Fold each of these.
Amino acid sequence: DGIDAGRRSVLAQLAAVVALPTAASRVPGVEGTALSLLGGSGGTVEGSLVDAGDSLTVQGSLSLSTALRFTVDAGEASYWRVGTYDRYTGDGWVRTGNLEAYDDGEFLDGPPADRTRELVQNYEAESDIGTVPAAWKPRQYEGDPDVQVTRHDGLQPEDGLESGDSYRIESQLIDATEDELRAAGDDYPDEVEGTYVQLPESTPDRVAETTATLTENAETPYQTALVVQRWLKENRDYSLDVSRPRRNVADRFLHAMSEGYCTYFATTMAVMLRTQDIPARMTVGYTPGESVGENRWEVRGLHSHAWVETYVEGWGWVQFDPTPAGPRRAAEQQRLDGDDGG
């Protein structure tokens, strides 16, 4: 069904994939920039991706926006996460759960302190935005706009941010070695297992069958995620000009499409992992942006992006980015070079 050549290639390399150190795969923020997506033909994806609210439908072709959204001062580059979606519908994602009030300065639950490192970020909005970007996992917030906490421990502003608004985030980043992550098992919390392996009945059986074949030599869930990530990077091309499939997006991208953009890559990886009972979710936000000074980044609409978070036993949610970085950088640079100030 269109994957035989890729399957042969992957199976031939699988032992190497499972054995090689892959710290860069675990920390995708260093890898490159991402693209602003469009809702349908002609809007911004930033609009469809970052501002999609409680539901996100996978769209067709995209364009890029050079609009400056915010600046960040932080000790290291990261993905500036906006939110996550837990329920896959076949043609998109839904965010479930209710918002809870947050009091400035209070601490949110986080991983054990001996398994994390602290990252303090200071943000300033450069245009009106409806989100509160933050490195995962945010622990404390202080700032101008009032915020609420999502079911997935993300932050959302009550009324949006205006240009000039600022806030401070203290986050705890997972500080694990590759060996520790590779060795993790599959004893997940009940809430995680019950929520993040859900798939609609319309998901064809061949998605699970193909994933099982590609990952048959992986010994742990983390290794399985590495194999899926690498397979998508190496066997699907990147393109902003695609036609949205009429049936299950993940199935079509895996078995019938040859190219797509970040939403397609992230959706497909999350669904493939779920077919193997590995908790995974679709996450959106921004890649680090453009470095404009020591520990300072400018983040534009064209840096909006989608990636995957997979739950690793004993550590929590770990990021994976299955979208090839090189073509994204080229498209972004081309848009910046041709910017007319609009």
Note: The radius of gyration is 19 Å.
Amino acid sequence: MIKTEYYKDLTKMNTFGMKVKARCFVEYDSVADLVDIEFEELARPVLHMGGGSNLLFTGDFKGTVLHSKINFIEILDESSCHPEPSCHPERSEGSAIPVLVSVGAGVVFDEFCEWAAKEGLWGVENLSYIPGEVGASAVQNIGAYGVEAKDVIHKVYCYDTVEEEFVSFSVEECGYGYRDSIFKKPEIRGRYIVTHVVFALSREPKPQLGYGHLKDAVDSATSACNPEQREGSLTPSLIRKVIIKIRKEKLPEPSVMGSAGSFFKNPVVSAEHFARIEAAVKAEQGADAKVPHYDLPDGTVKVPAAWMIEQCGWKGRRSGGAAVYDKQPLVIVNYTGEAYPEEIISLEKRIIASVKDKFDVELHPEVDHI
């Protein structure tokens, strides 16, 4: 069924809580509905959105907002999940056969994570409690705690609004990068509407605990189990529980204080540039000062944007109705619940300028400005 509304209030459909409206709002609940939508007749521009968790509306949307309600989770026939290594190049001989799970684009991503954990399936537990929907996860290549969507996506199915046909993209064809994919490229942005995503999960334990202090937190949770329960206690559900606890401690609940989660991408700099940053910090704070960082395989270095923002004195600071969250400086919040888009953008620009001035690093927003 297709539902159309005009001048739709989007306040509760974007986690920032921006008080904006869409000229036209179209919601559909099946793949077949897409064929019946007259895309050429929709008010322009056209925006397909999920849970509105990675968007900053800069004002009322003058075109059409599309929203998917395609909602299903289905395990595909496990006997057909590429039983031969030659059929799945990234899987070595003797490794576990992946469990392919097809998930509708309108499924809330965390509900999928919860389902997978209850099924004992590994792969998405580190992505627990990220807001948004499954379709958007494939476009954005969401990531957290050392895992990205691309690590578990097998294939993305879409409707091509130009050729008016259904198509699919392998994970390689999606061109995934850090919070990026071909679906975000200007030349094709909006052309493909994700209908469902097939994820490759595993029944074989594959914990990913190498990011930050995650292993310590999981070890602590495991040790808290009764001795008779400790063996085999490392499960997707346990890791999911730990991840949710960490996220709740660091990030605001959108229902309480609006935000889009991590506002900025973590910058990647050359080894030489990092050495300059490190030298400047030691000169300012002493020889024992540490600069958090992650060495990447190509020789570059990822530096946490949150650390840079905090070093510039922004943590907890307020500007009008907007503020930098006092528990996680990577997050800009709608502090009063009444913030205007202009206040968020003004604070964003001031943070970018100060980080550039102090570290000669240009921060880039992870959040899409609409």
Note: The longest strand covers residues 192-201.
